[in-house]
Amino acid sequence: MLKGSFELIGDKSISHRAIMFSSISKGKNKISNFLMGQDCLSTVNCFRKMGVDIEINNNEVYVSGNGLKGLKSFEDKLFLDVGNSGTAIRLMMGILAGQDFKTTIIGDESIGKRPMKRVTDPLKKMGAIISGRDDANLIPITVEGGNLTHIDYHMPVSSAQVKSSLILASLYGDNTSFIHEKMRSRNHTEIMLKSFGADIEVNNLEIKINPVEELFNKDIYVPGDISSAAFIMVGALISENSEVLIKNVGLNDTRVGIIEVIKKMNGNIEIIDEEEICGEKVGNILVKYSPHLIGTTIDKELIPKLIDEIPIIAVLATRAEGDTIIKDASELKIKESNRIKSVVNNLNLIGAKAIELEDGMIIKGKTHLQGGKIQTFNDHRIAMSFSIANLISNNKVILDSDKCIDISFPGYFNLLKKLSK
Description:
Its main location: cytoplasm. This protein is of the alpha/beta class and 421 residues long. The chain has two domains: 11-221, Enolpyruvate transferase domain (UDP-n-acetylglucosamine1-carboxyvinyl-transferase, Chain), CATH 3.65.10; 226-419, Enolpyruvate transferase domain (UDP-n-acetylglucosamine1-carboxyvinyl-transferase, Chain, Alpha-beta prism). The chain contains 13 helices and 22 strands. A four-stranded mixed beta sheet has the order 1-14-16-15. Strands 3-4-2-13 form a four-stranded mixed beta sheet, covered by helices on one side. A four-stranded mixed beta sheet has the order 5-6-8-7.
């Protein structure tokens, strides 16, 4: 049983962007409720290495920006280590494409397996010189920036990381750029850059970007991360007599797919005290135990709005009557692990009935989980999802490792312990 209320930690996606965009803007600003997870601290370290003055005081960060073209290389061969962060590497390549120095980006074993051509190919078309393993698909990747041209690009995949990288590169272009999305993806980049003075216009699935001379810093408040809230939300939905109030949750329209799915599955969830802060919707979420969950289908219309929440939705589905079908989610294969395979195999190990699909999975409900030892593959979302499965298992669900959780949710187990009754 989970009972109580808590303030949610800062959003990972927005925290990354706050550091990056502040670093290439003029002036000093304060970033409040910054996520002190390993991924976001990797971004801080990268920009410090390029000459940006960044001070950290508890969960507040102060950035003295260097301006659009003010980043510096203090070494003949500049190496930037992004650790485990796909957001850091993909967005940063868009910025580095506009700088006048050469940089090599490295990372951990997991990031070394994740594909980068979806970013490096269009950046090459804009004039950046990029090299790396497998034709600049795998790290280490070297970016030599300089004079970029504009681009009119139709994205082959729905990806906020790719879109954001190209928007950033377009700030350094020689003329107006257009980026066309297949489906709407999270839009934190457009919101924040516009508040910094970028000339961005969004018309349905088309984004128009004009180059600018400079961006100008302003203070940023980072709302709570709904992707992190999702684990506690599901824990409350499936654990008897639970009731949890989660405060300060980011409710951006492109991120609330998890709430839509919970409502479709007959979950007891309510949004209260909604407001807008720094261009982002924020509110409190009240979640209660829901004994009459029903299965649902999740496909391409919803996938971009909840891609990171699918592992925990799969755990939720084990407590629903009927089948839950997840499809059009092949992007899961290129996350920190192959999350289709990771989720299905681990669910079956602990007594659920899950079937792997080429682009998703089927979870058959309602099942009683028996527990057992699972493999996290050092994937923070797999680890947290199966720690929630432990709440309803007849025997313990044992994680082979939980250190990876600090990537996105430091203090997670302390919070879970505090809420557990």
